[in-house]
Amino acid sequence: MSDVHVSRRARLRERCAAHGSGAASAVLVTRPANIRYLTGGAPPPAALLLTPDGRDTLLGPPLATRAETAPGSWGNVSSDGPLHNCPLPPGEDDPALTATGLAVAAGADSLALEEHHLTIARYRALAAAAPGLRLTGLGCAVEQQRLVKDEEEISALRTAAEMTDQALGELLESILVGRTERHLALELERRLIDHGADGPAFPTSVGTGGNAGISGHQPTDLRVEEGDFLSVCLGARYRGYRCQIGRTFVIGTAPADWQIDLYDLVFAAQRAGREALAPGAAYHEVDRAARQPLDAAGYGVALAARMGHGVGLEIGEDPQLTPAAMGKLDACVPVTVEPGVHLPGRGGVRIDDTLVVRPQADGGPELLTITTKELLAL
Amino acid sequence: MSDVHVSRRARLRERCAAHGSGAASAVLVTRPANIRYLTGGAPPPAALLLTPDGRDTLLGPPLATRAETAPGSWGNVSSDGPLHNCPLPPGEDDPALTATGLAVAAGADSLALEEHHLTIARYRALAAAAPGLRLTGLGCAVEQQRLVKDEEEISALRTAAEMTDQALGELLESILVGRTERHLALELERRLIDHGADGPAFPTSVGTGGNAGISGHQPTDLRVEEGDFLSVCLGARYRGYRCQIGRTFVIGTAPADWQIDLYDLVFAAQRAGREALAPGAAYHEVDRAARQPLDAAGYGVALAARMGHGVGLEIGEDPQLTPAAMGKLDACVPVTVEPGVHLPGRGGVRIDDTLVVRPQADGGPELLTITTKELLAL
């Protein structure tokens, strides 16, 4: 992976240079997912410094405590030749502070920071430590670079989606009536790991009865009963990459008419959202495609703020598919489409897929989570 | 719980007033654990505003999306009479920004912020939104208030510790040889929930063979073998409160001499740390008590940065038991004592307990995690 990280850092340098950073400008990256993207990973607290002399330095805990935190991640990094690993001096626990000193020593006159990640307290400490250094904003340059994935990243997402489909498929073959939301969620997470996942991409959500269809519902001790809607939302994390699937089922043999109607409505909305995915489509158009059918049916006021979001090293990363989002999809951007309706006291339906935006010439959006979206009665 | 939260907020107001905040000063709390401490909880993103007119306002997602995020937490809060729940206006996703407007409307001339939590980007947005408002620092006032626990908080920790001991005890009765670190960790987490925990307090760590004794080791597919050291670190989360236990065992019937020697050394260090816990003891003295025996045996350079830490709504909260920590223990402060030694390639030993500092007259430190610390051969 080393070459990949070297070229990602080179692109970040170019991007900063193109955006008018001076020749003597250094860059400091502190957001953990951004550090992982640019280096392969490091145990927190860590910071990545790119200096005008062309040197890339990863600052982290001293070697003695590195083994105590996350040996695996550091193992990846130390094989990355052009990246210098620099332990923190004794007593220093903020790598950003050490990085600031290194930036000055390397001849930088300005330092671009992640102002959306650094706290005011840390910023003040950096400013005080290097009064001659001009502190500027890096903006979300790394997050923007992360939007479009390379095929290796998409391959990791595809593998994560396969593991997720397998874990869900096995659950559907087991007996569900009488089991609690908590136990079903735990079983799904165990099965993810059985299939090779590094862990769940986010806390697994299982909602039955009145809890079905609630986004991000935290599993309770409620037991699955005949006639319930049961909704699950889960995803595997594999090599750092996180996918997401959501499905809703009916427990028992014959779904009620209202259940069939609600399911068909959410299914149609979700399909419309999926079909709106194309290079050049505005984020808010995809949101609107999935939101409009639910809105028209009178559920507008209770809908979630977004109909989908990007996935990658983080779940819920950019792009945000919301009514107010600015920007357009590119090819090779993986996103979720996840509309849902919840009727208080009765439950509801959610259907979430992870897809990769592809041009029509390549067959259109690539569906990663392939578990059936028919309304199954389990 | 409502009265408890009301009085916690009253104490925060008093504290701010005593520290020279003007009569027209408002307070904005944004750290999630601090919001939970002062209100009982809210789904993110949320912010708590205390205004000079004596009004406490919890700002969060609009009602439509509240049900979509964490209905349980909001349920607790809305029963808290003197706390006003204020949904965010449409299109606004930073509750701190809405709070700033409310502070101005309530006649505040200054606003104290959590500068160790707010990012520079959010801070600038607040400053731009209310140019007439003086932005000051709240410091870690809420964290300091959280240091000493009331008996209700300690009772929640005690329950969490009981669940943790039970989960660990059951694991020890099962067959361990041939199972992977990942599966043992998952089983421990399942058992925590079986015993009533809301979830694990932190990711469960299981290390066998060469991985035993590594702090924060992420479980791998390595299988437990005869003769291995096996170390586990886990804790239950109950009503938001998190405890921690760590134990190391030998797999097979007869521990090797080096294993017995290393275990005895770490055990002696851990006992020394526990015995150093007393009201008035300096944080660095407790660190030293546990660190010194390991240092004297030649393991100093590879030791963790801290020999223990506070527990409560967060794992690893203050106090930090490190060589450089300033401050002294009070009664009713729950902390861990967790020395460990890891020998690369051979494994190692960790022994972690959660205890509550109590005066000698009350029997000295109260041990919450009571699983035996004898070297068991399993």
Automatic annotation (TrEMBL), chains A, B:
Transmembrane segments: none annotated. Gene3D superfamilies: Creatinase/methionine aminopeptidase superfamily, Creatinase/prolidase N-terminal domain. Keywords: Aminopeptidase, Hydrolase, Protease. The keyword Methyltransferase does not apply. SUPFAM superfamilies: Creatinase/aminopeptidase (SSF55920), Creatinase/prolidase N-terminal domain (SSF53092). Residues 156-358 form the Peptidase M24 domain. InterPro entries: Creatin/AminoP/Spt16_N (IPR029149), Creatinase/aminopeptidase-like (IPR036005), Creatinase_N (IPR000587), Pept_M24 (IPR000994), Peptidase_M24B (IPR050659). This is Aminopeptidase P family protein. It comes from Streptomyces gossypii.
